[in-house]
Amino acid sequence: MASKQETARLVLMVAFDGASSLDIVGPLDILSGTSAVFAGGEPGYRIEVATVSGGPVTTSPGGLQIVSRRLCDFDDAEIDTLMVSGGLEMSPARRNRDIVDWISRTAPRVRRIASVCTGAFLLAEAGLLDGRRATTHWYWAEEFAAAFPDVTTDADAIFVRDGKVWTSAGITAGMDMALALVEEDHGREAALDIARNWVMFLKRPGGQSQFSSFLPRQQSSNRSIIALQDWMMDNLDADLCVERLADRLCMSPRNFARLFVAEVGIPPGRYVEELRLQAARKHLESTSIPIDAIAAISGFGNAERMRRTFVRRLKVNPQQFRSRFQGAVGDPEAQGRAMLQ
Predict the structure, then answer these.
(1) Catalytic (active site) residue 241
(2) Of these residues, 72, 117, 241, 250, which one is catalytic?
């Protein structure tokens, strides 16, 4: 007679040297948590970690080693959920055909596939995301979208489900995704119990934009544009419409807008909004300045306009943002209020 562990759903995490330790351990710990909420401690899942060669896999950062089995050991296994970890440097794993081909070959026979953080690069290399919507860590979203144009990249989502394929944003977002997997398999109450035990949101408010740095990475080589950007940063409460900015460079609005996009990568209006949003976030994170005053000094003009921008861009309002990134830190009462919002 098969044991309860043997009959539990098999979750196989594909790893590699340099994978993020939390990408591996975080989601698997959430799934293992089902044994803490089921009567009799019945395991909801059987957890395995596999690499090409098996043995200890050295993770990053810190060099923590995790014992793994060989991928080929699972060639005939009844895998329920195939998960793929990510890491800071994905190039070696993406070039490793043993990993990519095994994922591609195995995916059709599993019930569900999921990637954590930059693990989405491996799913895309295996051709599993073509024609699908997917996400990854915000920092690599632009690179991911350029490398895989057949994938619809959602740079703001905490996690995305498209059919049987799930992808998640950076690191701890894999734990959010794992909670959603538990909810799908075992119901909301089981997922909620695990969320309580792990002190997590069952569904995290907002998207990953609230954690990201907005300003574009493309740096201008035009000295006039650089000087203008510096001036804009110091004068967020000024009139920064295209016409006024063009006047400062003695250019027509149309020619200025074209030059700005060519040099910076986004339209001037979007750049101004991102400057103001970045400034407001910093004030909310690090000061107790009233929201009305933050709206004024950040250039939004009034609190309602800032609130609309936050909700549109970050999916949370300024007060919620402040509660989660400042007030809840080290303050049990504020943390409780934030959890209830």
Answers:
(1) no
(2) 117
